[in-house]
Amino acid sequence: MQEYQKLKLNRVKRGQKRAVYDVEKINTILDAGFIGFVGYIHQGKAISLPMAYGRNGNKIYLHSSQANRMLLSLLDAGEMSMTVMHLDALVLARSGLHHSVNYRSATLYGSIKRVENPKEKEAALYCFMEHMMKGRWDDIRPMKAEELDRTLVVEMTIETASAKIRDVGVNDEPEDELLPVWAGLVPLKQIALPPISDKKLRENIKVPNHVIEYYNMHK
Questions:
Q1: 207 and 115 in one domain?
Q2: Could you give the 3-state DSSP secondary structure of residue 120?
Q3: Which residues, at least 6 apart from 103, have a Cβ–Cβ distance to it below 8 Å?
Q4: Is residue 9 situated within a structural domain?
Q5: Same-domain check for residues 140 and 206
């Protein structure tokens, strides 16, 4: 079992019993998501934005326009952090203090660089697309050279990370357990609904197999 080294930067201080440093478990959290929250500083102001990402090994890929202020600020800093979270359940206790949520979250820390080489940039965008939906890249038209030129792609190398997971039930005070108050979990999940074809599609174009497979896996 490979673990990220526990450093001052990534060590979980609050709720240490829920801390996870296992690389495979953290990658599982990342692969189950597609949106990460990225923090950066712009003109002295702290800003956090959601960004779609792709993962390949210990590399995270983000992309946007060449003028994107967040990515440019991160490149100037040379490092970044990103958090991915999945909300799994509402935990409804007998007292307000013990209400909670079940969740899986992972926070990454690492260095960042601009992807310049056209082949490496296309490979990064392939990774991004396949992270979104496997099989999608091969079903769309090839990317044009001018599109690659207009796109800023950055690569984060995960140098350390940690995760927190809560997957248990209600944790009430013992003296509250006999109160006439309902307590329990309300499980939550993100699902896919049936695909909706674009109105401008030609009549003979059907929903591709990779989209149907994605829907069947997530419905």
A1: no
A2: helix
A3: 85, 86, 87, 88, 164, 165, 166
A4: no
A5: no
pLDDT at residue 16 in the model: 87
Check whether 1 has a pLDDT greater than 90.
no
Q: From 105, 148, 103, select the one nearest 124 (Cα to Cα).
A: 148
Scanning 15-117, the segments in alpha helix (DSSP H) are: 23-31, 69-77
pLDDT computed for residue 162 by the predictor: 97
Residue 156: band (very low, low, confident or very high) from pLDDT cuts 50, 70, 90 = very high
12-50, pLDDT tens digit by residue? 988 889 999 999 999 999 999 999 999 999 888 999 999
CA 119 to chain CA mean position, Å: 25
Q: What SS3 class is residue 90?
A: strand
Domain range for 47 is: 16-188
List, in sequence order, every beta strand (DSSP E) within the chain: 19-20, 35-42, 45-52, 54-56, 59-65, 79-92, 100-114, 151-166, 184-187
